[in-house]
Every structure is written in C-alpha cells, then in structure tokens.
Amino acid sequence: MNSMTNSSSTSNTPSDTNSTTLRVAASLKKRNRRENRFRWAGRIAVAIGFLLVFVLIADITVKALPAFHQHWVKLEISYDQNWLSIDNASQQALSNANYRKALKKSVYQSFPEVKGRRDKRKLFKLFSSNAEFTIKDYLIDNPNAFSQTRNVWVRLDDDVDSYLKDHSVAGKPASRVDAKQALWIQKMQQEGLIEKRFNSSFFTNGDSREPELAGVKGAFMGTILTMLVTLAISFPLGVAAALYLEEFAPRNRWTDIIEVNINNLAAVPSIIFGLLGLAVIINLFGLPRSAPIVGGIVLSLMTLPTIIIASRASIKAVPPSIREAAMGIGASKMQTTFSHVLPMAMPGIMTGTIIGLAQALGETAPLLMIGMVAFIVDIPTSVSDPATVLPVQIFLWADSPERAFLAKTSAAILVLLAFLLVMNVSAAFIRKKFEK
C-alpha cells in the first residue's frame, strides 16, 4: 500500500514541476513585458522632454538672430562752420557745435528731390536719433575734417532696420514705413550706401529707449554684482548653519522648531522676500534702491533655505566611521568637522549652492519690489550703483511696444541662459576638484 502511494506521488511530481515552471515562465514574460513598456515609456518621456527643450531653444534663437546684426548707412556729412555754428576747431567749440543742424542739412543735400517740410521730416526719421552723436564723435576724433565733407557711417532707425531685415529688396511700404520712405530706402540700397554689420553695441551698451541703441551690458554687470553679493552672504551663512544644526546643535524642541521653519522658508513665495527687503533693508536701514547690494541681500535670504537643506543632507551622508576614526586618533569635534566631514560633504554642498543661485538668477518678483525695475542707462561699477538684472531687463523689453525689442528680448534670454550655463560648468568643475 505504501509503495503504491509513493509511486503515485512520485509520478505526479514531474507534472507538478512542469506546471510550476510554466507558470513561472509566463509570469516572467508578463513582468518582462511590463518592464519593457515602462522602459520605453521612460525613453519616450525623456525624448519628448529633450524635444520640447530643443524646440524652445530653437524658437528663441530664431527670434534672437535679428538682434545680432544691424543696418548702417553712409552719409556725406558737410562739417560746414555755419551749419555747426562755430568758427574754430577747438575742443570746446567742437563739443558745443550744432551737429543736429549739420546732419539735417547734409541729409537734405543728399536728397535734393525732397522738398516739403512733411517729406523732410519723414526723410530725417529714417536715421537713428544717435546719428548726430556719431558725426560728433567722428569730428572730435578727426578735427582736420572741420569745414570739409566726409563720409560717415551712422545707424538707421529701428523701424527701418526691421523693415530691411524683413524685406531683402526695399521699395514696398510696410506698417511703419510708408511708400515714400520705402523708395528712399531703395535708392540708398541701389547706391550701395546701406551695409549690414554685426551689432556689437548689443554687448557694449546699456539700456536705451531706442531699440537700435539698447544693449545688455548694464543688466549683465548688474547680474554679476548681484550674484556675487548673494554668494558672499548665502554660502558661508548656509554652510555654517548646516554644520551647526547637523554636528553641534543639541537635539531638543528648539532645534526642531528651527528645522521646521527652515523647511517652511523654502516654500515662501519669492515676492514676500521682496516685501521684506523693501520694508527692512531699504526703509529701515536706508540702503539705496535699485542697487546690487540690496538685490543680493534679498536673493540671499531667499537662497539660504535651499543651501541649508542641501548642505545638511550632504553632511548627513558622510559615513559615521569617518567621524569615529578621526575622533579615535585624538581629533577634536571642530577638527573632525572641518578637516574630514566638510571636505567630504563639499560636492553636495556645491550642488545645493548652484541650485540656489540658479533659482536666484531667474527671479524677478523680489527685485521689482526693491526698485530694480528702474530704467538704468549707465553701466554699474560697484554694488551701490543703480542697476538692473537680466531677468528684469527681459521683462522690461518684453513689455515694450517697439517691434525691434522682440528680438532684443530673445537675445537677452540667450545671454541669460549662457550665463547660467557658464555658472553651472564652473560649479561642476569646482565640485569635481573637491571630489578628488
């Protein structure tokens, strides 16, 4: 009887084993299919993300290209002493000469067919408001041109510049160029007087009401000064706070309250920090409005929670064995922290710092509250000079009605992205050096 039972159980074993193997194989195939679907979904999501970023950058670049070149026109300028209203070529006389009159007379002389006052005004509007200063600079640099006629290159007006960028062959009227102006532009083109040049003034000029003269240097320098103040304040304070909370502070209710408040500060809207800066830093302490030092202080307050949280996580990730080994050979708590823990945590601290600074670099709302939205023409040279920053400059240009500012806005965005890229690459290099 027992032998029969054993034989029957033995005979059932291979079929049961085969059935279990088939079920396991089917389950594995099902799981593999799920994994493959999930893997492909992830790949598609990454590809879509890269595609959207590429489309965004490509769209901004295409719109920004017109800002990197500009049209100039060669005018025959007569530096007649009667038109200039001076009788000698001294430096003082040349500085006070009537260049606007000389420019008008020279332009009208080049277009003798233009007779009426209205047509003359239309003709003169083809040239940039900076043209008179261009011919002034030429005469001051070349005093021997006094009472002579010289060919001087001057900028065209932004409407004419946009018109030429849209129309390879001028002659047809447009929204801001009427039929007569189109014909005058065509005449200058046919005579070879108009030339397209690289717009170097975009990188060397400050802001301007005239689109053909506006540049990003003022906002760029303001951004650098503001970021330097932000880094100088937020980095040492953030790292010091993280070290204290993680290595030295006792674990009690007060440290728990501090940690909760730090985490909550990271979620506070940025405009609240702008209101704090306006109420305390400017009104209470009397620091100047629209200055990089005020902007840097406000942005450092906003950046501190991010740096503290990232630094604490990096310090906490250092293995306890490092601390134990250092203290085991007689190192003090301070020596262990600054000679072993901090160097090992520095790569993560640098990552948190660059994330905080990148967030601060793109902020606009807190800077609007402290007056950095002001129209600033001069290039700032110190942290107390009036200045603006690239995000605010982009905001101002995007709100301008002139069409030429659209290309300037896109070009300023590219400059901001390039600045962010350089900052990230520098941080990666420094982080790599600390890792070694």
- Total number of β-strand segments? 3
Spell out the helices and strands N to C: HEHHHHHEHHEHHHHHHHHHH
- CATH level 4 superfamily of the largest domain: MetI-like
The number of helical runs is 18
The total number of structural domains is: 3
Strand order of the largest sheet: 2-1-3
Cα shape: elongated
How far from one another are the termini? Answer: 76 Å
Arithmetic mean of pLDDT: 87
Detailed description of the structure:
With 436 residues, the protein is mainly alpha-helical. The protein folds into three domains: 14-65; 69-199, no CATH class; 217-435, MetI-like (MetI-like fold). It contains 18 helices and three strands. Helix 15 packs antiparallel against helix 18. The chain is elongated.
Protein topology:
Elements: H1 2-64, E1 69-78, H2 81-84, H3 91-95, H4 99-110, H5 117-124, H6 131-141, E2 149-155, H7 158-166, H8 179-190, E3 194-198, H9 201-204, H10 217-248, H11 253-265, H12 270-282, H13 292-316, H14 320-328, H15 333-361, H16 365-369, H17 390-398, H18 404-435
Helix pairs in contact: 1-18, 4-6, 10-13, 10-15, 12-13, 13-15, 14-15, 15-18, 17-18
Gist?
The protein has 436 residues and is mainly alpha-helical. 68% of the residues lie in helices and 5% in strands.
Properties at a glance:
3-stranded antiparallel β-sheet, 5% strand, mainly alpha, 436 residues, 18 helices
